[in-house]
Amino acid sequence: MKGRSIQIICVIFLLILGATATQVSAAISTVGSNGEGNYTSIQEAVNNAQNGDTILVSPGVYRENVNVNKEVAILSSADLSGDRINRTYVIGAVPTNDVFTIRSGNVTISGFHIIGGPSGMDTYKEVGIYLEGVQNCSLINNTMVLNDAGIGLNNSQRNFLYNNLIGLGSIGILLTGSSENRLSNNEIVTNSEGILLDNSANNTLMNNSLYMNGLGIYLNASGNMIYMNRFSNFMNALDEGMNIWNSSSAGNLWDDYNGTDADGNGIGDTPYIVNATTGSIDYMPLANNVSSGGGQENMSGNNTGMPM
User: Does residue 71 belong to any structural domain of this protein?
Assistant: First the structure.
């Protein structure tokens, strides 16, 4: 028995040593379009990366379609709000293909200006960042223009979409068969459809701004929670399922809300009806004079306009 105990201890030690070695081996590589980095293309860096690695991409223009099948962080080293020269652009080399295709969990894409090429043939043909069957990915601080869809999730769960600016496309964000994702502080402007949820449940949409879209949000789904978003579109919302349109303290800000706020608490006195037939109702619509103070949840804005 003593010998067997020693063997077990040795196995555990080797497993711990292996895990530590894996963590230590995580590396940072650099990409530069002018040859100043370890690689000249993002795809080349991904091909040579290991799970857990970070890829830093210098400002410049990268004409490629990037396939990511490893757990890596791909980060622009430029300030997203910087001048046009100090930005990191990724332009799809094949206009009908997705610019970024993510087929691994635990991937982060942050800080890029992503430009596709609307195919004009299929609304869903080309996507700026496309997630296929993945979990725990983070898409943060990206700008996507001229894509059929800015961000697309298919059969994906527990992903985080934060502070992205999406415009001049067919669909801003498309979720198909996807659940438990969080969409927060995104600005979706001048698309045919802002956000489209298809057969997707238990997602949270909070503090997003949807302006000047043909249709702000379309819900062919149920069980999603939508609150503290700002809507100002040709048509703000179409809900054919059963979704929740307010939290316990706040709903959404609707540009076509006609109710009053007699007590001045920032919450409209009457509900905002999204779809009376399905019972899709915002019971706590935000009034135009809503304040971010006084104990209410933060309604601070994010991006302020489309970059040129």
Answer: no
